[in-house]
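Annex B. Sample input.
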Amino acid sequence: MPDGSFHPCERTGNVMSIGNTESGIVAQDVRRLQTGFRSATGDRCRDCWALRFCGVCFAAQAGQGGQVTSASCDAQRRAQEHQLVLAARTLQLPRDTRAWLDATSVK
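Annex B, continued. Sample output.
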């Protein structure tokens, strides 16, 4: 941040400080955030099919008063399902129809 404080992400604002430019990153503050995030998500992540695609992060937690709500999880699952459906539909297109994707994809 402009004041020299460190945060896990620019999207968390001033809510989740983990140190500053003078003293560096404070390991206890990082552990506190990790523990808080695990508490906020509970056991929901362990059995979630979208875990590896999930966009719920410290910023989402900061914006929800330290909580990660079921609604956030549901929205993430819907978004990831939508992306997977689009990918499957794209792969079903004839190869010449999607040739431009193959030509521009990152290799």
